[in-house]
Every structure is written in C-alpha cells, then in structure tokens.
Amino acid sequence: MAATWSLGSALRGMFSRATIDDETWSDLEDALISADFGPDLTDAIVDELRGKVAKYRTTDPADLQRMLRETIEERLSRLDSTLTLSNRPAVVLVVGVNGVGKTTTIGKFAKFLTNYGRSVVVGAADTFRAAAVEQLATWAERGGASIVRPQQPGQDPASVAFQTVEKARRDGIEIVLIDTAGRLQTKSGLMDELSKVRRVVEKLEPIAEVLLVLDATTGQNGLAQAEAFIEHAGVTGLVLTKLDGSAKGGFVLAVQEKTGIPIKLVGQGEGIGDLTGFTPHVFAQQLVG
Ligand code: GDP
C-alpha cells in the first residue's frame, strides 16, 4: 500500500501528460505546496527542476518525475542520517514534547537495537508522572531492555540518568536510552532540567546522541517545537513519528532543511517493530514513485 504521504495521486495527472508544459509546472508547484514543502522549498525545487529540464532539453514528464525523485534524495542526503553509537556505553538522550510518541519510540528503538544483538538499558528520567514511568517500563520490557526507575516520585531526573549510566557501566550494557520530561508549559524549567541531565551524565560518559522526537503530523507546529529544543538541548538527530498517519511528505524534507539536523529514525505505526532507520533513497522513491 502506498504511504499516505506519497505524492502519487497529486502527481499522477501531471506525469501522465504527453509533454512538459506550463500546466505541468503549476501542477507541480501545487502538489509540493499541498504536501507541506513550504513556499521557499517549493520554489527552490521548482527552479532547480526548470534548470535541469532546460539543460537536458527534455519535454518528457517521466524525466521530470525522475529528476524530482533525484532532487529530493540529493537534498535529504546532504545530512548524515547514521546513528553514532560506538561508545561503550553509548548514551542517548531522547527529548520531545509529551504526546509526540517518545515512550513508544524508546520501546521500539530498544527493540531495534536488541534485534541487532545490542544490550540496552532505559532510564526513566521523566520522574514526575508515575503512570509515565509504568508505561515506559512496559515498552522497555517489550523492547528487551532493562530499566532504571526513580526511587521516589519526583526524584531529580539527573540522578536517575546518572544511575542508569552507572548501571550500564557496571553490567556491561552497551546502550543507554534516557527518557526525559516533555512538559513544554514550563519551557525554561524544562530546558534547565535537560541541561542538568546532560551535565550530570557527562561526568560519567560523553553523550552519543540527543534525539528529538517530532510528530510528523504536526507540520509547522512541530517545527516551532523543534527550534526550542535545538537551541537548548544540543539535538543531534530527529525521530519523526506517525508517518503512517496524516503526515505530509514534504514536512520530512522541510524539517531537515529548516533545522539543519538529520532525520535518523522514522516511526510508522504503533507496534514495537514500527521504527526504521531513515534512508533518503527509499523515502524519495516512496514519496515520488
Ligand atoms: P509520549 O507522551 O511522547 O511518550 O507519547 P507516547 O509514546 O505515549 O505516544 C502517544 C501516542 O502516539 C500513542 O497513542 C502511540 O501509540 C502513538 N504513536 C507513537 N508513535 C506512533 C507512530 O509512529 N504511528 C502512530 N500511528 N502512532 C504512534
């Protein structure tokens, strides 16, 4: 089944015409705008494609389709989507606003890693919501990871993070995934808390990745959220969740170009197996057809 964010139906009419004409260009522009590429990126892509079509003197819409796919892949490939997890232990902070799919992502990511034979411990450093800790514990268990919980509700998140890294060192666990709070109502408080978690963890180990989880269905709102975290939390990679939902494909490229941070993982469902690495080639193929 084609992904819901595929440009397939929006572009079909355009690519089935006999030749590239003015209508083709305006249809392409409409398709990109309605897929959430945003006006700047849409203009940049259309200009680039006009240049290529002129250079190669083609009038065949099939060539235009191939060029669109290549342009999107090339732009997505400008940033490196490889996860850096070579430290032992490799410490990953997972940040993002409540509701974006952070807990689920941690469970799925643990599963992704344990499937590759890696050992994983999860740190429940969102210590204020007891129910959230229990939910995280369930997902960690599904993912084949152990968990370090707060000893009492409201324990200093940084101390839970510290204890998690200590456990990994003691037990020879390879990867540490630290869940963090996501209450954006108290933005400065939250950012201070994240900085403290970083500082305390770095007393033991360098931080391998700070992954910001974003709900891909939130479009421009998601971008605004991303900026606060990028400014304060040292984000090294993005995780886009809910790409199986009503997400628009253009958001994926727009978010990477706007933030300058690579997408490293994508969630496409609520199941434990529904998280994959991000491959620009595959994505561009699915998007453009
Ligand atoms: P948190 O508050 O950020 O920890 O969010 P949760 O992990 O509890 O997820 C919030 C909701 O989003 C839950 O209903 C999840 O099942 C759902 N969810 C998370 N990731 C995905 C995804 O990739 N696809 C879909 N369709 N739902 C997701």
Automatic annotation (TrEMBL):
Catalyzed reactions per annotation: GTP + H2O = GDP + phosphate + H(+)
The record's SMART domains line, in alphabetical order, gives: AAA, SRP54, SRP54_N
List keywords of the entry alphabetically: Cell membrane, Cytoplasm, GTP-binding, Hydrolase, Membrane, Nucleotide-binding, Receptor
Q: Name one GO biological process term.
A: SRP-dependent cotranslational protein targeting to membrane
By its UniProt entry, which InterPro entries does this protein fall under?
AAA+_ATPase (IPR003593), P-loop_NTPase (IPR027417), Signal_recog_particl_SRP54_hlx (IPR013822), SR_rcpt_FtsY (IPR004390), SRP/SRP_N (IPR036225), SRP54_GTPase_dom (IPR000897), SRP54_N_sf (IPR042101)
Please list which residues make up the signal peptide: none
Please classify the protein's predominant subcellular localization into one broad category: membrane
Q: Name one Pfam family in it.
A: SRP54
Q: Which GO terms describe its molecular function?
A: GTP binding; GTPase activity; signal recognition particle binding
Residues that bind GTP = 96-103, 179-183, 241-244
Entries under PANTHER family matching the protein = SIGNAL RECOGNITION PARTICLE RECEPTOR SUBUNIT ALPHA
Question: Which family does the record claim for this protein?
Answer: Belongs to the GTP-binding SRP family. FtsY subfamily.
Query: What's this protein's function?
Result: Involved in targeting and insertion of nascent membrane proteins into the cytoplasmic membrane. Acts as a receptor for the complex formed by the signal recognition particle (SRP) and the ribosome-nascent chain (RNC).
Q: How does it assemble?
A: Part of the signal recognition particle protein translocation system, which is composed of SRP and FtsY.
Official protein name in the record? Signal recognition particle receptor FtsY
Instruction: Name its species.
Output: Pseudolysinimonas yzui
> Corresponding gene?
ftsY
